[in-house]
Amino acid sequence: ITGYGDSPPVEMAVTAQGRRTFLEHVFQELDMQRPVLVSPSMSGRFSLPFLLAHGDQLAGFVPIAPVGTKDYTAEQYQGVQTPTLILYGDRDTGLAPQALQNLQHLPEHHVAVLPGAGHACYLDKPEAFHQALLGFLRQLK
């Protein structure tokens, strides 16, 4: 993600609208048609504004304890029809419960909890993560 870790800061990443626009540009440049957006942790600052504005352009959404879920209302989430797999590790007692509380307002959601996994559940339990993700992808239209 731009602006985090060793990545260079990007001016447009300062606002939610800028982050949404950045993601729009990425999808356009890669010529992606109805991708599934997988969004762990800090990437929620990019994915959530995009989902709420352009969720119809996604085949699916997979939030993994993303940040920023509390920045939006239940009503905003309820307007999104994108099939969603809310995925998290049961040992992520910080961000995951808050994300679940907010994201459960998405009408087309399923929840997958990975036992014994923490915040980076895809690193802690990669096989279980991939099984959940592939199961979700198989049922998409």
From TrEMBL:
Name-wise, this protein is: ABHEA protein
Which is a Gene Ontology cellular component entry for this protein?
A: cytoplasm
Which keywords fit this entry according to its UniProt record?
Cytoplasm
Q: Where in the cell is it found?
A: Cytoplasm
Its domain of life? Eukaryota
Which intervals of the chain form a coiled coil?
none
